[in-house]
Amino acid sequence: MTPRDVVLSRTRLQRPPLVPELELHLADDMDQAWAWLQRELDDGELPPPFWAFAWLGGQAVARHVLDHPDLVAGRSVLDLATGSGLCALAATLAGASSVLAVDVDRYAVEAARLNAAHNDREVELLCADLLDEEPPAVDVVLAGDVFYDAKMSERVQPWLLAAQRAGSRVVVGDPGRHYLPRALMRELGAYDVPTTRDLEGVEVKRVVVYELG
Ligand SMILES: C[S@@+](CC[C@H](N)C(=O)[O-])C[C@H]1O[C@@H](n2cnc3c(N)ncnc32)[C@H](O)[C@@H]1O
Question: Which H helix or E strand runs over 155?
Answer without folding.
Answer: helix 150-165
